[in-house]
Amino acid sequence: MEAVLINIEGKKRKIKIDTFEQARQIVCNFDSNSSIQIVILSDGSAMLVNEDGKLKNFEFNEVATNLAHEKSGIYPSDFIVGDVLIVDSDEFDLLDFE
User: Fold this and answer.
1) What's the pLDDT score for residue 76?
2) For 85, which of 20, 24, 28, 77 is 20 to 30 Å away at the CA?
3) What is the predicted pLDDT for the residue at 42?
4) What residues does each domain of the chain span?
């Protein structure tokens, strides 16, 4: 499946992922102790973010934060850090969560 990676520099690119574990590795920088937080956006797509990114002082992701605000995924005072993946709602259920 295709997902959109938004890195902390604000660059977007399409990537192919096949499993939830692949997505977790990308978003969590291959840290096996980190988990993914799923932010549901108003268009039904899912933004996958590092659940511990703020605690680990990941860099602010302005593009992802703006998108999450525009699509009512986070509170106005909240923000996104680190690289994120956007997965289309139709394909989210296709991820292998094992």
Assistant:
1) 96
2) 77
3) 96
4) 2-92
